[in-house]
């Protein structure tokens, strides 16, 4: 069985954190099929620690339990004493609480291990949340499945620089959910900020990209609603013109786009009502 990812960041040292929030999720492609469990620990200084575990064959519920299990193990390793646990699986949350009966014997050993780990914390709160609020753990589980368990970062990750090849291998992925750009300050904003998928420090303040549901829940103002399209091809900074071609093609069809180039992939944020049309344009671009 693959072990969860381990982190060696010296700033995230055992015993440093007493309180944390744990988001867990899991998924299975085939149910049963290839699967993964994942957890994201939001620490008191707004640092996130992500762990994931690849499962060659498992059900969705087994993957969900695995996500919770490895999250608890990481929290224990970091010396967390008080833990708030959030997950979008009603089955897992309610079975752990004891309000739902266990019906699948395949889950018994996982439930037993989870309950044993819970006794090692001074205080634990479990809460079911909507899927939109669980996007970080969901993304980690899907990334683990995509990688087939090979979640290690390459020592050298030089991207593709030839425009023709980049365009030919372009595989746009429409990320579930709606997103907004927000800014703000104070305790409510900081809580929402910990759940952002991206943030920028600007002269005027900190801007974050949030799931729309989280912005609404926190009453944060926004002016537009976007869908996220991830370009699942790793482009190099030397690939001059790659994103310009994409932005130009979308602009010709009247689709504005915010482009964010991350470490591994480029991400496009397009108006929510134009997302399907944008996906069709990108597929046409890839087909030449």
Automatic annotation (TrEMBL):
<dbReference type="GO" id="GO:0003676">
    <property type="term" value="F:nucleic acid binding"/>
</dbReference>
<dbReference type="Pfam" id="PF10000">
    <property type="entry name" value="ACT_3"/>
</dbReference>
<feature type="domain" description="RNase H type-1">
    <location>
        <begin position="16"/>
        <end position="150"/>
    </location>
</feature>
<dbReference type="GO" id="GO:0004523">
    <property type="term" value="F:RNA-DNA hybrid ribonuclease activity"/>
</dbReference>
<protein>
    <submittedName>
        <fullName>ACT domain-containing protein</fullName>
    </submittedName>
</protein>
<dbReference type="InterPro" id="IPR036397">
    <property type="entry name" value="RNaseH_sf"/>
</dbReference>
<dbReference type="InterPro" id="IPR045865">
    <property type="entry name" value="ACT-like_dom_sf"/>
</dbReference>
<dbReference type="InterPro" id="IPR012337">
    <property type="entry name" value="RNaseH-like_sf"/>
</dbReference>
<dbReference type="InterPro" id="IPR018717">
    <property type="entry name" value="DUF2241"/>
</dbReference>
<dbReference type="InterPro" id="IPR002156">
    <property type="entry name" value="RNaseH_domain"/>
</dbReference>
<dbReference type="Pfam" id="PF13456">
    <property type="entry name" value="RVT_3"/>
</dbReference>
């Amino acid at each position: 069985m693959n072990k969860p990812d381990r982190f060696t960041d010296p700033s995230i040292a055992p015993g440093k954190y007493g309180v944390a929030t744990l988001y867990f999720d899991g998924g299975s492609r085939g149910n049963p099929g290839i699967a993964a469990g994942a957890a994201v620990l939001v620490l008191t200084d707004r640092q996130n620690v992500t762990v994931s575990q690849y499962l060659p064959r498992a059900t969705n519920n087994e993957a969900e339990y695995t996500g919770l299990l490895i999250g608890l193990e990481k929290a224990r390793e970091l010396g967390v004493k008080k833990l708030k646990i959030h997950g979008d699986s009603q089955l897992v949350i309610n079975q752990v609480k004891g309000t739902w009966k266990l019906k699948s014997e395949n889950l018994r050993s996982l439930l037993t291990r989870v309950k044993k780990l819970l006794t090692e914390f001074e205080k634990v709160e479990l809460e079911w949340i909507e899927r939109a609020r669980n996007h970080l753990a969901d993304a980690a589980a899907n990334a683990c499945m995509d990688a087939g368990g090979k979640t290690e970062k390459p020592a050298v990750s030089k991207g593709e620089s030839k425009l023709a090849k980049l365009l030919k291998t372009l595989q746009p992925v429409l990320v579930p959910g709606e997103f907004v750009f927000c800014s703000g300050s104070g305790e409510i904003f900081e809580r929402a900020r910990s759940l952002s998928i991206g943030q920028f420090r600007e002269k005027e303040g900190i801007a974050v990209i949030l799931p729309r549901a989280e912005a609404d829940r926190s009453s944060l103002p926004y002016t537009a609603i976007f869908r996220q399209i991830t370009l699942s091809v790793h482009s190099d900074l030397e690939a001059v013109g790659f994103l310009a071609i994409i932005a130009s093609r979308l602009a010709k069809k009247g689709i504005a786009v915010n482009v964010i180039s991350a470490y591994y992939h480029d991400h496009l944020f397009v108006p929510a009502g134009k997302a399907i049309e944008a996906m069709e344009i990108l597929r046409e671009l890839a087909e030449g």
